[in-house]
Amino acid sequence: MDIDILALNEAIKKESRFVDRALEEVGKVVVGQKEMLEGIIMGLLTGGHVLLEGVPGLAKTLTISSISSAISLDFQRIQFTPDLLPTDLIGTMIFNPKTGEFAPKKGPVFTNIVLADEINRAPAKVQSALLEAMAEKQVTIGDQTYRLEKPFLVLATQNPLEQEGTYPLPEAQMDRFMFKILVDYPTKSDEMEILNKMSTDNIPKIEAVISKEELMRAKERVDMIYLDDKIKTYIVDIVMATRHPSDHGMSHLANLLAVGGSPRATISLTRAAKAHAFIRGRGYVTADDVKAIAYHVLRHRLILTYEAEAEEVTSDNIIKELLNQIEVP
C-alpha cells in the first residue's frame, strides 16, 4: 500500500503542475485573491458549484473569465435581474416557418462555466431552472431533456450589502453549492499592484495552459487520491457535531445551531479535501486539507438560531469552535 501511495503521490505531483501555471497566468490580470482562485479551480476539479460573496468591484467576473481562458473552457455571463425568465437561461422552442416545426434554441447555460451574476436578484422560477441544471447537469426545453457539457460549473456571485429587491436563495439551492467563498478587499500592497496593472488599456492576454481534455483527466486523478479511514472519521465527526454538538462536548453550541450539515456536506468535505490535496501536489489527504476547506464547505449549510443572531455569532465562529474542539487524527 505504501508503494502505491508513493507512486500515486508522484503521479499527482506531475499532474497538478498545471494549477501553478494557471494561477500564474491568471495572476497577469488578477492580483491576490488566492482563496477565490483556488476555490474555483477546486470547483472545476470536483464539479462542485461555487458561490462568491463580496461587494462589487473585487474582480469576481474578471477572475472567472480569466480562469476560463487559462483552462480553454467556454464561458457565459448571465446578469440576473428581477425580470429574467427561465427561457433567458435555458433557451426555448422556436417555430421554423420553412419546416413548420418547432426547434430548440439553446440558452447561455449550455457552456462549461456559467457566471450567474447577482444570483439573488432573480425570481423563484429562474432559480428553479438553474437548480435543475446544477443538480442534474441537464435542462428541459419543451418536452425534451438535454445533457449539459462536461465540465459544467455554476459560479454565482451575490452582494452581501444591497438586499433591496432581492430573492434570498432557498436552502435547497444553497446546499447545491459546494463552496461559499467570502471575497474580501485587497491588501494595501495588492491595491498598489492593481493600480499599476489596470490603470491603462494594455491588459495582458491570458494564454491557455491546459486543455479541456487534460482537465477531465485531472478530475479522474482527484478521485484516486488516498483518503485514510481516520480522516474519513474526522470528516464525519465534524458534520455530526454540527447536528448534535452536545454529543461532542460542545453543549454551549446547541442553542446556536438550528440545522447542521446534511450528508451532502460530508460528501463535499471529502471531495473538496481531495481537490485541496491535489492542488498542493499530494496523493493523500491530511487533516490540514479538511481544515483548509471546512469554512468554504460548511458556512452556507449551517442555519443559526435567533439566539445566535442576537449574540452576533456567525457560521464561521461556530466552524472555528468545531475545528478547535474535535480531535484531529
Helix share bin: 40-55%
Q: What would CATH call the class of the largest domain? A: Alpha Beta
How big is the Rg? 21 Å
Could you state the oligomeric state of the chains shown? single chain
The biggest beta sheet is recorded as: 5 strands, parallel
Q: How many domains?
A: 2
> Structural class of the secondary elements?
alpha/beta
Number of discrete helical segments:
14
- What is the N-to-C succession of helices and strands? HHHEHEHEEEHEEEHEHHHEHHEHH
Q: How much of the residues is beta strand, in percent?
A: 15-25%
CATH third-tier fold name of the largest domain:
Rossmann fold
Proper CATH architecture of the largest domain: 3-Layer(aba) Sandwich
Q: Distance between termini? A: 20 Å
Mean pLDDT: 84
Overall shape: globular
**What do we call the CATH homologous superfamily of the largest domain?**
P-loop containing nucleotide triphosphate hydrolases
Q: How many strand elements?
A: 11
Give the strand order of the largest sheet, numbering strands 1, 2, ... along the chain.
2-5-8-1-9
